[in-house]
Amino acid sequence: MIGQKQQHTVNSLMKMTTPLLLLLSVLAACSDTPQPSDPTPVQNYDLVLRGGLLYSGADEPPVPGDLAINGQMIAAVGDLGEYEATETIDVSGLAIMPGFIDIHSHALSGNRSEGIFGWPDAENLIRQGVTTVIGGNDGDSPLPLSESFEAIAALPPAVNFGSYVGHGSIRGLIVGEDDRPATEAELDLMREHVALGMQQGAFGLSSGLIYTPGRFAPTEEVIELARVAGEYGGMYISHMREEGLALLDSIAETIRIGEEGGLPTQLTHHKVVGAPMWGSSVESLRLVDEAIARGVDVSIDQYPYTASSTNLQILFPGWALDGGREALLARMVDPAQRTRLRDDIVYNIEVDRGGNDPANVVLAGCPHDASLNGLNLSDVLRLQGLETTKNNAAELLIELVAAGNCSAVFHAMVEEDVHNIMRHPRTMIASDGGIEGPSDRAVHPRNYGTFARLISHYARDLGIIPLHTAIYKVSGMPAARLNMKDRGRLQPGTIADIAVLQISAVKELTSFADPHQYAEGAVHVFVAGEAVLLNKVMTGARPGVIVRSTDLR
Question: What pLDDT was estimated at residue 163?
Answer without folding.
Answer: 98
